[in-house]
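Go through this chain for my students:
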Amino acid sequence: MQPQSRIIKSCGTGVNTGKVDRSGYRPGMRTAVVVLFLFVSPVAAVEQPAEDKTRVTEEWHLVSHSPELSLYRRARSGSALKEFKAIGTINAPTRVVHNVLNDVQGYPKFMPFVAECRVLKREGNSFYSYQRISPKIIGDRDYTLHIDERTWPEENGAVYSKKWKTANEFGPAARKGILRVKICDGSWLLEPETAETTRATYSVYTDTGGSLPSFLANIASEIGIQKVFTAVCRQVKDPKYRSNRDFLEPET
């Protein structure tokens, strides 16, 4: 991953410039096609092979920048979909942000479009999680992810790394009326800027299936990442996430 300069100031509510992009869509129009995945991955829905046979073919390019968030994207060979990365500062310690992201059972309450989310199994430093999203426009999607977690100490606190891939073979069988997502790869990296602020890096490459044109899927990804950061920024304010509780376990 190409190093990026620390150009973010603080976490906010996202960017809305009111400008028309090359596709002719204004930001308000874009929102209608936004879909979010776990941790939570933005939509990217075009007809693609079930197996991800793409590879990275270029470096990261800056798409947009605001005081709240910097968004990057890069191409993959064999796909019209872009891989996206966002970098922003969240006003909470890394442990608190980590707890929010691990509150899987709570996602339907604070993550946009998440209708169902639960931990299926834990194995050492990894776990399997089933997700179902219910966007208003394109219909329900579901998938199972395998999430690998790592942590190590730094001067201002702990660093947390989360990486995931689709693992539908370990989850529930496909259900009628719900489109099964075949590809969803991504990660979170939480680094302590200070003892009370986190530099969060989120990357995702995903294909939800269906027939949404790739240019709309890529537009939706840009909006979706902003919504993810906004949701996490709001949730870290809840004092319960400062506890030492294991948030992967159901609250008793």
